[in-house]
Amino acid sequence: MPRTEFIATGFHVPERVVTNDDLSRMMETSDEWIAQRSGIRTRHWVSAGETGVSLAREATCRALDRAGMQAADLDCIVYCTCTPDHFEPGNGVFLARELGLSDVPAIDVRNQCSGFVYGLSVADAWIRTGQYRRVLLVGAEVHSRGLDRTTRGRDTAVLFGDGAGVAILGPTDDLQRGVLTTHLYADGRHAEKLWVDAPGLAHDPFISEELIRAGKHRAVMDGRDVFKYASVLMPQSIATALKQNGLTPADVKLLVPHQANLRIIEMVQKAAGLRDDQVYVNIQKYGNTTAASIPIALHEALDEGRLARGDLLVLTAFGSGFTWASAAVRW
Ligand code: COA
What architecture does CATH give domain 3-172? Predict the structure, then answer.
């Protein structure tokens, strides 16, 4: 069986930059509060005409360029998002259409902040078994249009940003390299601690003025519990990934964690026993872009020369569900 390697990555964020000071003109908050608790300074928000799929298309074009490939070379799309352009069908088919593809499968993965690592696990299984050879793995989100940009929604509105990151994956016969293992977890007992209740078919009707008036279409978060579980479960999943591969923290060249919150990343780093230079952070620029955060960070880390052939890369994520995940990759 071959292993799965990263052929190329790409990312795209909207041009519009929103600073913490910009937010403080929309709601009662401050640069100091946001930066101190999350590390975030700016995030990008879409403008009229931009959608999750349009961001994903731009990111895909950059990755295809780097890979020296055409869209027609792709065999499959795995599209991870929790902010789809429409209720159905999933964004994957819209992206396929944008790319001029009419004969490849497109699956949507809805695992929020863990989406990209869950999607990597799916793509890796398909590539190793030979079902698909060239898989486009997408993490793309438009949060800004769903945020409550008033003081009522300030605990979540200041954290999330828009953006897209992709990876083109394919098989390698070099069994020393590629995705070594992926580790996926979920605990639905915490489902309502970070969720968007509606629209949803548990409600009849599934969307109504009443639901909207009650703010059920906005993300609601128990920030403290999210913080508490994220800072414990991500290091646990990193430890499992290392142990399963007979590796130790000293072997890690780079951890690219989901960029949820600088304080969470710092706690994960400490619990995982990693030095500053072993952890990649870019949350200050983009905020939390959920499924897009890991591929955007990975792309920037590669551009900065933080990973070379043979290095050990570890990915880890945590989010709504709760779901969490990690992956060990020999670059
Ligand atoms: N600006 C100013 N004040 C805010 C605010 C904002 N954007 N958002 C909330 N507050 C207020 C609250 O209303 C509350 O006020 P009160 O005490 O008068 O009720 C107070 O700040 C809470 O502050 P604090 O106790 O310091 O909050 P915290 O340390 O729990 O930090 C989070 C809040 C959201 C930053 C923190 O819980 C967190 O980072 N959680 C994880 C979030 C996350 O990463 N989610 C995504 C995971 S994938």
Answer: 3-Layer(aba) Sandwich (3.40)
